[in-house]
Amino acid sequence: MRYLITAALMVPSLAMSDTLGEQSGLTINTINATDFEVIETQSMGAAEFWCAAASYNEARQGRSDLIALYVRSPRGPAKTAQGYKGVVFTTDPAGLPPPIASLTLSVDQPGATLKSRKGRSFCRDAFTRSTK
Predict the structure, then answer these.
(1) Rg of the chain in Å (alpha carbons)
(2) What is the pTM of this model?
(3) Are 122 and 80 contacting, i.e. CB atoms less than 8 angstroms apart?
């Protein structure tokens, strides 16, 4: 019984550690205290961008998973890495257009927003897809 309880306690931490490490190979460059850029790698979709932004917010910056993340500059030429594409995210909505209600996940509209927690929910799907 003691081993069963120990195993049950370890499962949530193992699941979280899996999602924290899977996207660690992505390049995320700090622009200022509130803005950062996720650099696109081959075949990245919106889910991977949001996952990376949330991971940066929570794991690297130590911020709450309840903070809203916003797209400041949509997918396009990177601001911090010449020759690459990227998306600039921010935690400060000042100067952004109001978010448009949408049922699709996107990083192509300035002002698009998700809570960090929701962005992290895409990490497991984005980085553990099976080709079997």
Answers:
(1) 16
(2) 0.77
(3) no
d(CA 99, CA 109): 9
CB < 8 Å & 24+ apart, contacts of 95-98: 96/70, 96/72
Is 48 part of a structural domain of the chain? yes
What residue numbers bound the domain in which 79 lies? 2-127
Q: Judge whether 88 lies within some domain.
A: yes
Query: SS3 of 114, please?
Result: strand
Q: Three-class SS of residue 72? A: strand
pLDDT per residue of the chain (132 residues) written in tens, 0 to 9: 454 444 333 333 333 333 344 456 789 999 999 999 999 988 789 999 999 999 999 998 999 999 999 999 999 999 999 999 999 999 999 999 998 778 889 999 999 999 999 999 998 755 555 433
**Which tokens hold the place of 36?**
């950062």
Q: What is the pLDDT of residue 62?
A: 92
The answer to whether the beta carbons of residues 112 and 90 sit under 8 Å apart is no
How many separate domains does the chain show?
1
| Residue 51 counted as domain residue | yes
Say if 82 falls within a structural domain: yes
